[in-house]
Structure formats: structure tokens, C-alpha cells
DNA sequence: AAAACTATCAACCGCGTAAGT
DNA sequence: CACTTACGCGGTTGATAGTTT
């Protein structure tokens, strides 16, 4: 059964709206309010279909529409929301006052998407793109030491290689390798990036670890990669007793208190989400771990504090990391370069304060 | 100066679905 | 329950402006 046309299109005007048409539409809606779009054009004296009128109103004529360049904060919000919601433009627009879904969609496709691609980040999955990763280097390094990696599980568990969390980790690891001429920076980067990625990867219902273990590509593998890096002298500050927590941990950051335990989400709800760049830092830009940070376990129906100190031998990073890009955050007139610089910190996104994840469910 | 190319974004199209009959 | 209608959404198109060659 074919769908009935929204309106009789014979004789109806298409294309750009004239100021006169806009005026008619605005006047009519001011008097009668929006709605009943099918009847509206006839009543308003417009030779347009209702759909066209609705679109013109919602995307252009509505009085509360904010026009002009997207601010840095808006762009940040879009990226964060897109990592959670995907191409749910209307849902994203609902959280950006004054912006329409069409506008956000256009902006995504013409600006953000391209920038992410340039950064080597897949704009769909928000994970590093495979073709940008020197995975062969990782694999080659690991495979040279058969005690570190079981080849069959590695190959058989190829899905694990496509795990976004692992890819992020791999990307960071490789970037560390490229920077290994600066041990101090390396150590610091490890603290800030690897630790955070390992733990943040476990935040959504321990999804990362579960996937890895199910695919025979265990957390141990990641640890082995880190050990290998350590053996290579890359991670001079990493102790051999480095351990990943096995609890189901959720974020309860001192800053925004977002977490499963207090968000009203079930664990399954959380696990179903795409990687959202939740991380456990107090600073959304640098992602350092405050010493008093506690994770809450929601296992067994009860909340159990999870103490990082008991699982990490590595001291937490300093609160003022090198190369901090925190200066751009307050700039509303951000340049493209600055935004691109910001995207290099893309893995450290944090759900902004006041953003109610529960609304997305 | 003009052609070619690229970026932008308003508008359209078709589909899914809720609501109504 | 089947069907129709209206609405909203996401993908896509195409006109226009801006930039490069």
C-alpha cells in the first residue's frame, strides 16, 4: 500500500521562500499558532504544501531560532551528544536551544564530520579509524614475543581489534611510541591517557572487559601491550603490578556526579550506548584522576566504593599536565585550528555538567 | 576576468510511526 | 484489526556564494 501524498502537489510552489510568503506564514502562525500543517497553507493563502510550511517555520521563521556561527561550547555539545545518540539530530537539537535539527545536521556534515576525519576519527563510531592506526606495528611488536600474545586468540578474536575502546587505547599507545623521546611527557601521558582509557573503557557496564574476555582477547592482552611498551622503555613509570579493576565500575565524578548509580539507568541501558567518552577525570580536558576519586560498583544491587589506590600502583598524574589545551575552552570565537586542536583531545570528552543522560533513554 | 571548483545550507523527498476512524 | 492521515525525522539535493586556478 502506497503512502498517500501529504498534499496535492499540483500547482503548489516549490523552492526558496519569498519574503511575502514568509510574512504570510508568520502572520498566520502568530494568530493561530503552529499545527494542522495540512490546512495551514490554504488558510494562510499560501501556494505551498503543509510540509513545506512546517519546515520553513521550524527551520527558519521560528522566533526562538539562534542564527550565526556555532560556538565552541555548542560544537563540543554536538560531538558529545552525537557520540551518544548518533544521527538523532532532533534529539541533539532539543539540547541546543535555538538550533534546529537541520542546522545541526548541516553543520555536522560540513564542519565537524570533516574535521574528525582529518583527525583520523571515524565520525560514525567516534573511534580512531583503522586505516589511521599503525596496528601492524603493535601486532608486530607483540607477535615477536609469543609469550605475550596468543596468536590464535588474537586473530580469532579479530572483533576485539575493532573494539573502539581498544582502538582508542592503541591509538594512544602508538602516539606515545612516537613521543618516546620525552620520558617525562611519556610518563605523564601514560597516566593521563592510558589509565583513563583503560578505566573509562570499563565504565559502561564493564563492556570493554566483557567483550575482550568473551572474544579471548583479554584485558590481559591490553596489559601485555602496556607491558611490552614498558619493556620497550616507553612506560617507565608503569609498575608490573599494574592491574585493571574487575569490578563493574561506574563514574561518579566529584564534578558532575554522572553515573549509573545515580542516573536512573540500568546497567543494560548504559551498556547499550555507544562509547560516550565518559572518563574518570575531574578535568574534562586533561582527564587527570584526582586522588580522592572513587568509583562505585553497582554489583549485587549495592553500592560499593572502589578505591583506585588499591588497584593502581602508578601515581596519579599531576593536575596541571603539559600541553594542556584548557585555554581554548572559554573562547567563543574559536578558530578552526583551535577547534582541531581541541579535537586532538577528543578521547577525553566528558558529559558536561547539567546534561541529563537519563533524558536520552 | 572568467572558468572551475568547493562549501554552505535551505529545501525537498521518502520513510516510519502515532493517532484517528 | 485494518486502513488512512498527519506529522516528524533523517538523508539527500541543488542553488548560491565564496574561493582558487
UniProtKB/TrEMBL annotation:
The segment(s) forming the HTH myb-type domain are: 9-65, 66-116
Residue ranges for the region (Disordered) are: 313-336
Q: Which UniProt keywords apply?
A: DNA-binding, Nucleus, Repeat
In which residue ranges is the amino acid composition biased (Low complexity)?
Answer: 313-334
InterPro entries associated with the record: Homeodomain-like_sf, Myb_dom, Myb_TF_plants, SANT/Myb
Q: Which SUPFAM superfamilies match?
A: Homeodomain-like
Keyword tRNA processing carried by entry: no
Record domain Myb-like: where = 9-61, 62-112
UniProt subcellular location:
Nucleus
In terms of PANTHER family, this protein maps to: F14D16.11-RELATED
Tell me what this protein is called: Transcription factor MYB102
**What organism does this protein naturally occur in?**
Ziziphus jujuba (Chinese jujube)
Amino acid at each position: 500500500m502506497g503512502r498517500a501524498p501529504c498534499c496535492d502537489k499540483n500547482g503548489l510552489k516549490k523552492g526558496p521562500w519569498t519574503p511575502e510568503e514568509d510574512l504570510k506564514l508568520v502572520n498566520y502562525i502568530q494568530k493561530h499558532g503552529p499545527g494542522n500543517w495540512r490546512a495551514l497553507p490554504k488558510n494562510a493563502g499560501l501556494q505551498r504544501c503543509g510540509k513545506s510550511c512546517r519546515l520553513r517555520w521550524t527551520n527558519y521563521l521560528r522566533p526562538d531560532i539562534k542564527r550565526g556561527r556555532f560556538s565552541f561550547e555548542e560544537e563540543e555539545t554536538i560531538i558529545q551528544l552525537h557520540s551518544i545518540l548518533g544521527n538523532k539530530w532532533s534529539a541533539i537539537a532539543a539540547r541546543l536551544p535555538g538550533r534546529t535539527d537541520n542546522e545541526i545536521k548541516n553543520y555536522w556534515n560540513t564542519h565537524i564530520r570533516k574535521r574528525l576525519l582529518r583527525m583520523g576519527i571515524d565520525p560514525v563510531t567516534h573511534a580512531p579509524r583503522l586505516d589511521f592506526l599503525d596496528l601492524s606495528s603493535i601486532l608486530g611488536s607483540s607477535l615477536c614475543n609469543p609469550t605475550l600474545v596468543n596468536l590464535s586468540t588474537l586473530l580469532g578474536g579479530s572483533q576485539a581489534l575493532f573494539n573502539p575502546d581498544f582502538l582508542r587505547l592503541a591509538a594512544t599507545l602508538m602516539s606515545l611510541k612516537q613521543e618516546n623521546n620525552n620520558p617525562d611527557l611519556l610518563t605523564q601521558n601514560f597516566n593521563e591517557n592510558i589509565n583513563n582509557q583503560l578505566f573509562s573503557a570499563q565504565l559502561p557496564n564493564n563492556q570493554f572487559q566483557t567483550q575482550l574476555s568473551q572474544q579471548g582477547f583479554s584485558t590481559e592482552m591490553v596489559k601485555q601491550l602496556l607491558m611490552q611498551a614498558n619493556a620497550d622503555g616507553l612506560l617507565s613509570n608503569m609498575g608490573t603490578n599494574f592491574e585493571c579493576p574487575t569490578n563493574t565500575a561506574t563514574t561518579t565524578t566529584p564534578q558532575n556526579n554522572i553515573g549509573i548509580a545515580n542516573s536512573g539507568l540500568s546497567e543494560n541501558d548504559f551498556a547499550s550506548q555507544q562509547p560516550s567518552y565518559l572518563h574518570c577525570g575531574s578535568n574534562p580536558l586533561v582527564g587527570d584522576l584526582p586522588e580522592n576519586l572513587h568509583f562505585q560498583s553497582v554489583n549485587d544491587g549495592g553500592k560499593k566504593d572502589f578505591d583506585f589506590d588499591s588497584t593502581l600502583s602508578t601515581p596519579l598524574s599531576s593536575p596541571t599536565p603539559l600541553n594542556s589545551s584548557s585555554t581554548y575552552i572559554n573562547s567563543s570565537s574559536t578558530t578552526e585550528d583551535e577547534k582541531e586542536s581541541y579535537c586532538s583531545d577528543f578521547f577525553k570528552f566528558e558529559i558536561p555538567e547539567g546534561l541529563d543522560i537519563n533524558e536520552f533513554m
